[in-house]
């Protein structure tokens, strides 16, 4: 007994020493008294270029030095969490909406409401509500309450179609104002699925969708949902949900309007779309630069609608948060607002074709620009403004319950299991994960 | 008297220099091995999300582990993938035998087989991800030549593990082959000559001379491959980022990583690491014990 206690003491002492050691190097002031901040972000060369430019301007204007830490997209989350565990938290860093609850509950990020509202540096009116609201949290529900981060960008996941293919097949073009019903969509998709060179093999398909990124649009539009209002119940076992999932699986198994089984999760349909073999395909703002070179004309339309008659889709976002541990909260908040709302940085990123502008007036101008594809860029703005939604996993303490839904879904997509069987099976497992997430967050029963 | 003092001062200085040299790796060990190890043992008994201070929770994590079907499945997957180890060893021994002959271009082939070993695992994983692509992948194109309609390797629960095993064998071949080659070259020629005089055929020579003589290398390779095999992560994370269809390619380290960094369960992840560590230790210990019985020497 004595022995084990002394071991614990030793461990505690070692741990404390470790924390002290790491604390030393986090000293935030330079010799000359200039304040310095660290900014951790992820992204490709385009982001780097835009932010380096913006940050150096910020340094000049504010007499603050900013050290930038860049990682690749897939390493970012791991590195950031390791930094947090080691108490080496950067002053300003990217955050995804799904992390807000955990970071707020554990005191990692700062409530920056007072720095943002009524600040001269940022005009909230001109920033997408969706972007700002994604980082609000009132202690129970995300989406309302105090502001914990500002959007770096918003990512409306729109739907596109191959205009050239429609024209060649003599099918009337879809109306961007009046979305297809699910039946109409299947109908058109069937007409587009064919063997164009008569070799006995299909080489053109109506669509090719990915369950993880595209199923939500159809579930929501059909009136289904993963979660109830107060986010304590997994609601995938409703008829609305089941119907949409079955319809999604049937695209492949029943109607055969997508390329063969199993490919929904690979890049294949993406490559096929770019080769002009697919009629309907999702389009995100990050695709625009790549899609400039497509060998066909394309344009954006709303997703097909289910029982509610209202189109729906997912909209991603990435935020910029300020650490609670920062020694210069004022400057850190200023940097976050600057990066979120700085016109030049936004312009550089938009010109690079990787995102739509954060600033609404700039976005309007960009959408009107007829020199770039697609013509109906306005659809992106409508999504952000009117009908884009967050992924359900981003609304809770962690996304384990939501990921569980996709772990075992393949048999449904392959037609080996009905949607109804699956949701009955998956619901209790997901509920268990959700309960444990809510419990960790100290929310609900 | 004075000479003694001088000498001891000299000694002391030398002593200090030596200590300074020794200190570096020792401090490194304490800081980067022992401390994290002790801390993770401690963390495994806590409810810790990695964001704030851990809260002691006794054996909760360990109890939860054995009720967690994904933990058991990840363990199963990890050990299943080790099927590649004996296959890889057999192939690399065969290759080493081939390379050991005096033939044209053997240096070239040795180099070719070694290239995968020095390539980054991330690059190799991406390469094979393409090769395994159901439609355009190299593997299925080759299979199509002989009239086989290949599966969508990485998307099918039945083929994802074989696919990963094939890749792992390919990647490790060069290293095992090189070690075998070195071992083969140190086998005394006179053993073969004596055996040949006694009328032993090629198979018998291989079975009774070559295999026993390269056994230390086999042992070394088995031990290190099992340890490495229990820590497979990068290729899983790149080739099947969601743990594969129905969790069928999720290895234990991948699952630990997911729990720790995606689901904020650092304490639980620590507990799983501890169990994994104990298992690897136990397996290695057994291997050493078994090997002791097989030791022999020639005088």
Automatic annotation (TrEMBL), chain A:
Residues making up the signal peptide according to the UniProt record: 1-27
Alphabetized UniProt keyword annotations: Signal, Sugar transport, Transport
CDD domains, per the entry: PBP2_TMBP_like
Coiled-coil parts of chain: none
InterPro entries: Bact_solute-bd_prot1 (IPR050490), SBP (IPR006059)
Keyword Transit peptide: no
Name used for this protein in its record: Multiple sugar transport system substrate-binding protein
Taxonomic source organism: Arthrobacter pigmenti
Automatic annotation (TrEMBL), chain B:
UniProt keyword list: Cell membrane, Membrane, Sugar transport, Transmembrane, Transmembrane helix, Transport
SUPFAM superfamilies xref list: MetI-like (SSF161098)
Gene Ontology CC annotations of this record: plasma membrane
Residues passing through the membrane, by range: 16-38, 79-99, 111-131, 163-183, 217-239, 267-288
InterPro entries xrefs: ABC_transporter_permease (IPR051393), MetI-like (IPR000515), MetI-like_sf (IPR035906)
Domain ABC transmembrane type-1: from-to ranges: 74-287
Protein name (database record): Multiple sugar transport system permease protein
Natural source organism: Arthrobacter pigmenti
């Amino acid at each position: 007994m004595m022995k084990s206690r002394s071991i614990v003491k030793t461990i505690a002492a070692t741990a404390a020493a470790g924390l002290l050691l790491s604390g030393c190097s986090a000293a935030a002031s330079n010799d000359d008294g200039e304040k310095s901040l660290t900014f951790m972000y992820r992204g490709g060369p385009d982001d780097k270029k835009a932010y380096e430019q913006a940050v150096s301007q910020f340094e000049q204007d504010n007499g603050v030095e900013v050290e930038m830490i860049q990682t690749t997209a897939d390493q970012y989350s791991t590195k950031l969490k390791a930094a947090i565990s080691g108490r080496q938290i950067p002053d300003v860093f990217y955050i995804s909406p799904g992390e807000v609850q955990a970071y707020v509950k554990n005191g990692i990020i700062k409530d920056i409401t007072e720095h943002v509202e009524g600040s001269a540096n940022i005009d909230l009116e001109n920033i997408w509500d969706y972007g700002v609201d994604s980082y609000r949290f009132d202690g129970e529900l995300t989406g309302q309450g105090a502001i914990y981060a500002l959007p770096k960008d918003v990512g409306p996941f729109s739907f596109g179609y191959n205009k050239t293919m429609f024209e060649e097949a003599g099918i009337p073009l879809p109306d961007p104002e009046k979305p297809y019903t699910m039946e109409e969509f299947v109908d058109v998709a069937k007409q587009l699925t064919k063997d164009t060179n008569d070799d006995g093999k299909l080489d053109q398909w109506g669509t090719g969708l990915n369950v993880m990124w595209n199923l939500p649009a159809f579930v929501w539009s059909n009136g289904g949902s993963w979660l109830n209002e107060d986010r304590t119940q997994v609601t995938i076992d409703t008829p609305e949900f089941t119907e949409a999932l079955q319809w999604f699986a049937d695209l492949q198994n029943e109607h055969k309007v997508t390329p063969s089984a199993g490919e929904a999760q690979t890049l294949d349909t993406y490559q096929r779309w770019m080769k002009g073999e697919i009629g309907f395909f999702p389009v995100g703002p990050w695709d625009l630069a790549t899609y400039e070179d497509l060998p066909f004309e394309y344009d954006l339309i709303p997703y097909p609608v289910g029982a509610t008659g209202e189109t729906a889709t997912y909209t991603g976002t990435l935020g910029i948060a300020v650490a609670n541990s920062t020694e210069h909260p004022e400057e850190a908040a200023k940097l976050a607002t600057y990066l979120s709302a700085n016109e030049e940085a936004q312009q550089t990123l938009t010109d690079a074709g990787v995102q739509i502008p954060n600033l609404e007036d700039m976005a309007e101008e960009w959408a009107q620009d007829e020199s770039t594809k697609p013509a109906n860029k306005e659809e992106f703005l409508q999504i952000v403004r009117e009908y884009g939604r967050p992924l359900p996993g981003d609304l809770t303490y962690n996304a384990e319950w939501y990921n569980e839904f996709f772990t075992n879904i393949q048999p449904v997509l392959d037609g080996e299991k009905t949607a109804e069987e699956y949701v009955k099976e998956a619901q209790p497992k997901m509920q268990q994960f959700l309960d444990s997430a809510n419990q960790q967050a100290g929310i609900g029963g | 008297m004075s000479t003694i003092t001088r000498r001891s001062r000299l000694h002391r200085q030398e002593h200090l220099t030596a200590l300074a040299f020794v200190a570096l790796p020792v401090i490194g060990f304490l800081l980067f091995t022992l401390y994290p190890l002790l801390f993770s043992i401690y963390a495994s008994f806590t409810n810790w999300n990695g964001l704030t201070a851990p809260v002691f929770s006794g054996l909760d994590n360990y109890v939860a582990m054995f009720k967690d079907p994904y933990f058991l499945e990840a363990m199963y997957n990890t050990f299943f993938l080790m099927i590649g180890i004996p296959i890889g060893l057999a192939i690399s021994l065969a290759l080493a035998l081939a390379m050991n002959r005096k033939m044209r271009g053997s240096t070239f082939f040795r180099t070719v087989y070694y290239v995968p070993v020095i390539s980054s695992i991330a690059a190799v994983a991406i390469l094979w991800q393409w090769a395994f692509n159901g439609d355009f992948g190299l593997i299925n194109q080759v299979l199509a030549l002989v009239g086989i309609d290949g599966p969508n390797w990485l998307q099918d629960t039945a083929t994802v593990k074989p696919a990963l095993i094939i890749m792992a064998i390919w990647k490790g071949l060069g290293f095992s082959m090189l070690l075998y080659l070195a071992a083969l070259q140190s086998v005394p020629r006179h053993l073969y000559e004596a055996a040949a005089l006694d009328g032993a055929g090629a198979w018998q020579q291989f079975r009774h001379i070559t295999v026993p003589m390269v056994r230390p290398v086999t042992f070394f390779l088995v031990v290190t491959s099992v340890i490495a095999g229990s820590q497979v992560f990068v290729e899983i994370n790149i080739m099947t980022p969601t743990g594969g269809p129905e969790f069928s390619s999720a290895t234990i380290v991948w699952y630990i990583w997911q729990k720790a960094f995606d689901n904020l369960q650092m304490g639980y992840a620590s507990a799983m690491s501890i169990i994994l560590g104990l298992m690897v230790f136990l397996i290695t210990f057994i291997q050493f014990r078994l090997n002791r019985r097989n030791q022999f020497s020639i005088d």
